[in-house]
Amino acid sequence: MAVLTGEPSGDLLAHAVVRAVQEQQPDLELLGIGGERLESIGLKSRFPLRAFAVNGIAEVLPHLPRLLLRIEQITRWVLAENPDVVLTVDAPDLTLRIAKALRARGYTGKLVHLVAPTVWAWKPERAAKIAAFLDHVLCLFPFEPRYFEAHDLPATFIGHPIVDRPRPDIAKDPNALLLLPGSRMTEVRRMVPLFREVVEKLAASQPGLRCLVPTVQTTRAFVTARMGDWPTPIEFLFREEDRLGAFRQAGTALAASGTVALELAQADVAGVITYRLSPSTYRQFKRQTSLNHLSLINILAGEEIMPERMQDAAQPDQLARDVQRLLQDESARNTQVAAQRATLDKLTLSGGQSTAKLAAETLLNVIRA
Known about the structure:
The protein is of the alpha/beta class. The chain has 16 helices and 12 strands.
């Protein structure tokens, strides 16, 4: 079995699914591209995950020759290994390019993609294009399968792994602020300076403020170097258990937009979501989407329950006001947390089955078909 990821969040998702497959197939042979978590269960990554952690048009262009070379190298390597199934995970600009190339060059095994491309948000024509080469899509949101089934591509709603995590059972520290600037180097370079301006403004009005900063392998050196001299105490967290502990402990967060919004909701953290892209990338995205909200939790809710401040609205003064309100107003935090909980209920599978187990069963059924 080959597993191809392109970023730390995909490494985390794939880890749970592959572990569930290993429970049913202990002799599973594993190869592919992954990070710390997949490597912990036996994958020897063909290339380091940090080599692929870029996003956005303007952000990718300087790296394009190297990325295209890597795609070609991975495609040839997988064809030579010829596994029974290739599980591609999220990062569609990378992983689906490889899947398409594999099928075009005669790969006859199964191609399964985990985390459906957001065809419901932009570029709906992608559903028909990927139906031409994929065998199955594993969807994290209940409204997604119909977009692919309309093009005769089987798709299964497996739930979202976020809801499998236990909710926090300890009192929140109102002075603990989670800072989550992202997992890709391109986004971290944009977000860290913005976060610093916000924290500088907060420090004057919140004397007991302390910042918790979980890190990932792809950006760890940069984050620790650039955030080490801030005006508030900074605690860097390197291990997964420490990261989860920080989510349980903090009551408020400032985060770059992404899956982390759902993580915050599951951990009962009142978050403020922000993001900045290059102007050209953002303009293209806005032209191709009809969404009123860009953060996943707000898309699911159909309204803004978690403040989101994107692109030109991502200004230090506004972000500081949003965060300060949550830090200082317990009632506001509790109201937001309750709305987040109600929204996450939409991602829960009936019968209490875990996402990873259902994904593994579906994957094995596809292989056997």
